[in-house]
# Entry
Amino acid sequence: AHRPLHVSIVGGEPLVRYRELGEILPRLAKMGVYTQVVTSAVRPVPSEWIGIPRLKIVVSIDGLQPEHDERRKPATYDRVLKHIKGHQVTVHCTVTRQQARRDGYLEEFVRYWSENPDTGQIWISLYTPQVGEQSDERLAPADRERVVAALMHLRKGFPKLTLPAGL
# Structure
């Protein structure tokens, strides 16, 4: 009765339930539903999913390899690269203060993933804390301005970086 336009499958690690998703995703596609699976790619993305209409695989990457591998073990860069082979994934990174304050960090990240043939798009978010949170990852207003300026510049040279002009 209330057919959705879009379904996002997130939380935990959806690929743990790859068998069930292998049944659900084609059904959602047949219904005309746009579906997004957000994963760390700790497990292989099934090759049977290639070509499912309106399906987007989004892989959460926490920065460049050293930071990502430390934070996401066992979903290390090496494993992610192996597990996305043959797909066109969207790489998503949430920028933290540590990344924002290192000159050239964002360009290095965007360049690395832009050069990967299995990357279709790159999405960037800015770390947004809970109300009242005071952590080392929290971006100061000046950090946010610097990140947005850098991304607006990078979008011109890296077409996989999906960033609206109105940002």
Observations:
- Helices lie at 18-30, 65-72, 77-83, 97-100, 105-114, 141-157.
- The chain has a mean pLDDT of 94.
- The radius of gyration is 17 Å.
- The chain has six helices and five strands.
